[in-house]
């Protein structure tokens, strides 16, 4: 279904990519659980010949993903890392990538431990500092600027519009990992970025029941190249995973409103609690980039990080005491999660290579993925977990 450009986000989320099944009229896109498609003559078929190259359930999801980011094209992958890896295949040996020094641990691991072996040069800078990125762009040729905003787990923001403008003038692509904000809160393509990447495992899927990734873009030539890479490398999402992600997307708009409301309630509670040393949340006036968050994002999101006066020992105690916040990696689902990034999701940025690149995740940092439960229950859970630490 083509969604008119003036439809609101919630409407696009429900309708984009979904057409009644031509065979039966089924209102929901079927799970086309098939590897191949019958041909009526040599190379005569209905647009699909093999499910690695294309599958109707995946096509519906890819159309929806593009529409959510206000882009022309979308591609769906078997995981967020598969999407990032495929996008990085646009960069050739010897070429330089300017990237943040506060990234998802798995992204740093892919860059530092896998792709640098193929001769890609990664230049780590603090992308929250626009001038630092400008200086890196001025220092020599580059192919790509890789941004994550807000960052995982320290929730630092990058000014996408300012950096995209400088990069574009230098002929350098900008890719934004938009996993933390989701397209409900932030649309990097409209701010001048060339590519948006998602771990759809998180807010887009939204129910902690599927692993997936996506790339969205406007330029047709790079889309064709990436579609070729998707088929050639083969890290595609299966029909069932595409169905689950499509189903999750329908409620993205209303889920993100609840995540933002609950995130703010939790962040304000923590900020006032005597055991808490520091709360990091873009929706708090105390966040150093609160103004940028207001300008660049439609809401501060559901991720809250904090440190306790009692340091790492207190953090470990709290993480084991919560009842509703479940101790687990990942984020973006309807249920609330708690974790210690330094020991869990970001263990791969604990080593000396990461420290040399400027990564620093405090061992006492606690990260919350605030779900859509009632905010009073979430606050009560944290209150009992923090008692006496
Ligand atoms: C989880 C995550 C990824 C990796 O996605 P997977 O689906 O786990 O492969 C990439 N970037 C960010 C910001 C993430 O949170």
Question: Can you walk me through this structure?
Answer:
With 389 residues, the chain is an alpha/beta fold. The protein folds into two domains: 9-249, Type I PLP-dependent aspartate aminotransferase-like (Major domain) (Aspartate Aminotransferase, domain 2, 3-Layer(aba) Sandwich), CATH 3.40.640.10; 253-386, Aspartate Aminotransferase, domain 1, CATH 3.90.1150. 36% of the residues lie in helices and 14% in strands. It is built from 13 helices and twelve strands. It has helices at residues 9-15, 56-68, 80-88, 105-114, 130-138, 160-169, 220-233, 239-249, 252-272, 290-296, 311-321, 352-356, 375-386, and strands at residues 73-77, 96-100, 121-125, 144-148, 173-177, 195-199, 213-217, 276-280, 303-308, 326-327, 337-339, 366-369. The strands form two sheets. The protein has a seven-stranded mixed sheet with strand order 1-7-6-5-4-2-3, with helices on both faces. Strands 8-9-12-11-10 form a five-stranded mixed sheet. It is globular. It binds pyridoxal-5'-phosphate. Residues 79-81, 104, 106-107, 148, 152, 177, 179-180, 199, 201-202, 211, 213 line the site of pyridoxal-5'-phosphate. The site of pyridoxal-5'-phosphate has 16 residues, from helix 3 and helix 4.
Using brief descriptors, characterize the structure shown.
389 residues, alpha/beta, Aspartate Aminotransferase, domain 2, Aspartate Aminotransferase, domain 1, 2 domains, 7-stranded mixed beta sheet, globular, binds pyridoxal-5'-phosphate
